[in-house]
Amino acid sequence: MRRTFVLLLLGTAVLLVVTDRWLLPLTSLRAAGAAVYGAAESAAGTVTRSFGGDGRLRELERENAALRAELLSTGARSVSAPPRGVSVSRGVAAYVVGFGRGQRVTVDAGSGSGVVRDVTVLNADGLVGKVTWAGAGTASVSLITDAASSVGVRMAGSGELGVVTGLPGEGLLRLSLFDPDAPLRAGDQVETLGSAGGRPYVAGVPVGAVTTIERVPGAATRTALVRPAARLSALGLVTVLVPEPER
């Protein structure tokens, strides 16, 4: 009886996967499932973190993370009012509560906290990724090491511009500088260039450090491998930069 029940569950799961991928996308069902699963993950994480009596400590960690992220993302920008067209953001601290397919994680903050799609996610060390889906209480984050990830960057020293793309199998990034003759050496620091309106990426966030220079004769760009500043394989507390409502 038990074996028959297990086989039935497996068959149902396979049927849903096949239907979703090749026949009829089950967007609403997936969203509902993600909401339920995410809420369960969030609740389980909250209970686990609070079990030792450190609930208040976790709240302080969230507050500190939001402040660190705000300082990290603003960098050397003026504290005066930003120019027209530049969005103002605030930090929403969240814990990573699950790992999805590919280079994606789930965090325990969603639209109820102001989280929306296409906003920056970072931690105390640097850039983590961007939000790709936001439910009521959870959100999905695509890491910068995802194969589909592409982030405009600037070299911290020389100011040279380029782009980094994800290398998920290696946990690294590939840097391509627009100038094939640009100066580049191991240890050089890479930071975000910033997107229009600060979405999906704000400017001035550490991305990583150059580890290996790739030499390709005749190449149109200068390329290198970059190790992310954030330890993406051991994420815990992160901060989502959400847009402040216009006044």
Your description of this structure?
- With 247 residues, the protein is of the alpha+beta class.
- 27% of the residues lie in helices and 31% in strands.
- The chain has three helices and twelve strands; from the N terminus they run H-H-H-E-E-E-E-E-E-E-E-E-E-E-E.
- The protein has helices at residues 2-23, 27-50, 55-74; strands spanning 89-99, 104-107, 120-122, 127-134, 139-143, 150-155, 161-167, 172-177, 189-192, 206-214, 222-228, 237-243.
- The chain has a six-stranded antiparallel β-barrel.
- The longest helix is centred in the N-terminal third of the chain and has 24 residues, at 27-50.
Question: Helix and strand layout, with pairings?
Answer:
Blueprint: H1 2-23, H2 27-50, H3 55-74, E1 89-99, E2 104-107, E3 120-122, E4 127-134, E5 139-143, E6 150-155, E7 161-167, E8 172-177, E9 189-192, E10 206-214, E11 222-228, E12 237-243
Antiparallel strand pairs: 1-2, 1-12, 2-5, 3-4, 3-12, 4-5, 6-7, 6-9, 7-8, 8-11, 9-10, 10-11
Q: What's a quick, concise take on this entry?
A:
The protein has helices spanning 2-23, 27-50, 55-74, and strands spanning 89-99, 104-107, 120-122, 127-134, 139-143, 150-155, 161-167, 172-177, 189-192, 206-214, 222-228, 237-243. With 247 residues, it is α+β, with helices and mostly antiparallel strands. The protein is elongated and about 55 Å long.
